[in-house]
Amino acid sequence: MGILSGLIRFIRIGPPPIRPSQPAQSQQQQQQRPQSTAARDTRPAARKSPHNPLVDLPLDEFLRFERDVAWKRLLVNVNPEGTSKGCVVASPSKALPDYWYEWTRDSAVVERTIVHRFIRERRAEDWTRLTEYIEASRIMQHKQTVIGGFEDGGLGEVKYHVDHEPFTGSWGRPQADGPGSRIVTLATLAIHLLEQGKLEEVEFVKRALYPGRPEEGIEWTGVVKGDLEYVATNWKIKGFDLWEEVSGRHFYTLLTLRTSLLLGARLAALLSDPTSAARYVSAADEITPFLARFWDAERGVIVVTVDHGKELGAVGAYAGTADGADVGKQVKKESHADEEEEEGAENYDETHGKISGLDTAAVLAVLHAGRATSWARLSTSGCVDPSTVFENGEKVLATLAKIVEAFRGLYPLNEGRKKGEAVALGRYPEDKYDGVGLSIAHPWYLCTAAAAEFLYLLVEDLAALSTSSTSSSSSASFLHLSPLLHSSLTSLIPSLTTHLPLPRTGVPRRSEWHENGQLEDSKRDPETGEEVEAIGRGARDLTWSYAAFVTAVEERDVARKALERALGAGVEAEEGALKGKGRE
């Protein structure tokens, strides 16, 4: 029980207090410091924050405070003033960069946190938000976009203006994970309502989500049904990744699409539509072999993209993140596609310079679409589906271990942190997107939080393993760690028997948060980690960042309870063994 007692002690008590950052170094001291592998930023030094009272809070109190702030700021970005009902803006930032849009993917990920809270707490205001989001989704599904309409590929559109009108400028299209993510969110809600909801909620599912109102035409097709038909028909088509930079086939996208189809099949079966259910399962089964291709055994990592390149006739030659190739300009509704096509085609790199193969999208994929799969478990001996035996959390953990090590030496912000201590993570080591243009990349809150959340999932798996009916045999085989798992654990979690340091990887140091508890920017300055002007550093109040923090803290609570149960079960087992010996 040494490992479990160490785990529970860390999660219950937390790490030692973290003190405020040291004052800025002198120019001479900075010159003496070893140079990072990242390019140096020539812009003015970041502003230092005064002493932050959040530093002095006990960890649990700090996390409760920040969770409440994150919820508040997340909800501020749901239907803010000046937007149509159901709109989820990516950020209130309207320039440098302009994130005043509703991305299909971001909206689905954010609304999923609301779905989970509604399932737990049944808040009336959350039900209102969800029904408005569903209606907004229906409206956007039936808009004619630059890549098509409802029945010919238009659901692969990436983002919409805040009045639900589609964006018509040049961009990386299609992005099929958008409708896939929306299925995961809304099918989860629909299944809950069918199984535990009131009669009127069941009728709502049939009317608004699946199948809709066939007698009233395609405009009244259920939102989930419409997305499922798109995914089942178009999952093979290459598209752009979640960072909107690389075209090909992506781990994040395909795992999302498979999960969405399986959830859709379950929903269809509940609503007595076996024909559609079988078709969705069949499409999901076709995706599974593709997922095996993302494991690079030679490098020991999950690569996030294979089959680089675009489909013939694909729209858009280039798409950077945020404002694409047109960074620094105010994006208007009128298209400037010709200008961007000409400019982007000259310097287009199909791999976007990702030579390391490392990308936090591999972890995000499991969090957003792989929680119920073996990708989120270390103990896969009970896997009964031979087609998915290649899927296991070892590979994700090994990938994360290499990502952490890559970023440990990349950002000066991470300098001086020992193995096992928290490090700030970005999207991928070769990233050049600085939040406005292409120069020097920064850590991302949502990527850093994802590392912690994934590790908490593994903690739950370890706890469940220790309390299973076959725990003695399972634990014995589990302790004979494969070389891959052994190297990952020793690298990422150096001393499980005394502490579990890395789950706080997902929580920036308390001295790095704003005094009001807000995450002002989507990224932090790589040199200092301190508060900087939002202009030039990324979108402020990124809604996805708040959702990522909320889910990481919630997963921490679940992991702690799982460990408490495991520890209690272990104590009972030991007491029982002692009593048995006494009777002998």
From TrEMBL:
Residues 16-53, 329-351, 506-531 are annotated as: Disordered. Gene3D superfamilies: 1.50.10.10. Residues 81-553 form the GH15-like domain. It catalyses: Hydrolysis of terminal (1->4)-linked alpha-D-glucose residues successively from non-reducing ends of the chains with release of beta-D-glucose. Residues 337-348 have a biased composition (Acidic residues). Keywords: Carbohydrate metabolism, Glycosidase, Hydrolase, Polysaccharide degradation. Residues 509-527 have a biased composition (Basic and acidic residues). One of its GO terms (molecular function) is glucan 1,4-alpha-glucosidase activity. Residues 21-36 have a biased composition (Low complexity). Its EC number is 3.2.1.3. It holds the Pfam family Glyco_hydro_15. One of its GO terms (cellular component) is fungal-type vacuole. This is glucan 1,4-alpha-glucosidase. It comes from Rhodotorula toruloides.
